[in-house]
Amino acid sequence: MSGTDASGDAVHPDDEARELLETLVATPSPTPEEDDCAAALVAFLESHGREAFRDEVGNVRAPADDSVLYTSHVDTVPGDVPVRVESGDDGPVLWGRGAVDAKGSLAALAVAAVRTGVSFVGVVGEETDSRGARHLVADREPPDAVVNGEPSGWDGLTLGYRGLVSGTYVATSELGHSSRPENNAIQDAVAWWSAVEERFGDEDAPVFERVTATPVAVEGGVDDEGLSVEATLEAQLRVPPSHSTAEVRELVDAELAAGTVTWTDAVEPTMQSARTPVARALRAAIRERGGEPRLLRKTGTADMNIYADAWDCPMATYGPGDSALDHAPDERLPLRALDRSAAVLEAVATRLR
To answer: Which of 38, 42, 41 is nearest to 52 (CA)?
Structure first.
């Protein structure tokens, strides 16, 4: 079967990409339980005559022509979304955990890689600590270019991501009667967090251009010995390209009147040019499929941040699906979006080679 979209573009079902996607989505891979899904990916690559292996941290690697590296992540967040195909407005729709984030991208990139002979990696751990991407940049030389797989919509490409800095605030105070005027540790933690929020409270700027601070866990109370009050607050701050993670840490530390902050993770922001060979190739390929390219900046963080910080080469993030459905209980991907994305990626690899 074939159909025609509103622009008159003939869209042909990509049975190979669809079959691979259904296999990947039907094989659960919540972090860190990626082994079965990674094995299915290795089997697909080997069936097309590609050398494929698992590295020390579990990444699926298929080295080849390094004019461009195609990469996306194998893992998903937890959650049971029953796998099924249903009819949608634009043809069949595949439901299941990971259909959007990011097995649609993973399948499209893998299919395009075997058809064009470019390098491919399916990384692990993206949803938690990016252990796969971190290992990859430490273990191999930079490619000439990178296309990282995350949902952007088949006609969109993502050029920017905010960074991330995480830390844990800890305060301790002597136990005293609640009528005393001095702050206890819980009040110190609340005061510190209020100061941090006020420091980064410019709500007039677009979210992508702001530092935003979020508490992710809070504990407080009298210690087990009944002698002191303790408070712990775990925080994440998203960092726009106008700042470095070091600058944000310094600003947060300046708000400390009591307690200490231990910084636990840092991922630098990135903003890529729309004029790189990768971005130009994606835009041209999208237009050839009847789309009007959309240039995106995302307020979250992805493995592209890791690659951009380590490798001095052009890159962009691309893949089918609506990112509003990431991690959602109704995660689903129209299969014609997968067809279009696989065709776009095949054309991009051909251009970049």
So the answer is: 42
